[in-house]
Amino acid sequence: MSATPSIAPAAAPTARLRPWALWTLSFLAFPPAGLAGRALAGPVDDPGAALAGGALTGLVIGAGQALAGRRRLPARRWVLATTLGTGLGLLLGAPLVGYGTSAGELALTGALIGAVLGPAQALALARTTPQRWLWAAALPPLWALGWTVTTLAGVDVASQYTVFGATGALTASALSGLLVLRVPQRSPAPAAARARG
After folding, report:
1. Are 124 and 138 a contacting pair, CB within 8 Å?
2. Mean pLDDT over residues 150-171, rounded?
């Protein structure tokens, strides 16, 4: 009597793609993050609006990403890093381009946000994370790409939102998800440690 063939090898690719798919879904946090940032601070046309709107935007994005990567990311540190990184990054980037909304100006703004946000999020990862500085290096081009895709999609970027729209977010999230796969899953914390946490 022959043994029943194992299905484990066939299931492995699906299990491998699940964290990437979940992370990609975090793009859904970007549109409400942009709306929240604009509702709080108005259009990004002065330093105060850039900092306050960017920080709230980062808070919402960070929470969405922490939820999507909950088995790999330290949630509190990640949300804090994303809040500070997005706020300070937008404060750096938007005034530097005169709060402009051309494709080139927004791509540069995105790259500068990524240059602040990337290292902040990389520092939030555990020190033992393999090649965590790849994340810092990847964020500037990914955020520049996010704004470029949003602009090409015909979104009303002249309204000076704090972050790119859903099309750009989907693109950036799908690509950054490939890096999330390199972040190892954390071991479940003992109940006592979770209670203290």
Report:
1. no
2. 96
